[in-house]
Amino acid sequence: MPLVIWNKKDSVGVKELDDQHQGLINFLNRLHASSMIGRAREVADPALPRLLKLAAEHFTAEEKLMESIRFPRLAAHRVKHREMTEKLEEIVSSHEKGDSAVYVQLLYFTRNILVRHIHEEDQEYAQWISAHGV
Prior knowledge:
Blueprint: H1 15-36, H2 40-68, H3 74-96, H4 102-119, H5 121-131
């Protein structure tokens, strides 16, 4: 059973960003399913460097969109992105040092930080887009 299920209320109304969000949720669900059978390493090991890269690309794309629509909370949103990037970099660093607890940290991080960010903070700019006809 998936840990998180994507639905239309999660949409920010921009296909590229929605696709990226869905990719994150799919990664979380694969990691969760693998960890439930003791195989988190098989999913996380090859995916961690790519996840860091994709997060950076996604945050850049979101911020460019927010700049283009003159989203008033862009500065605060950037701070959240920077905090999430730093945390993800810490997790990757721990993984590279052989920390076996990294999979639990990654699962917690993706579920409670990134997914919450999609459900809450990203919905702020989605509402701005809708309200301003952008």
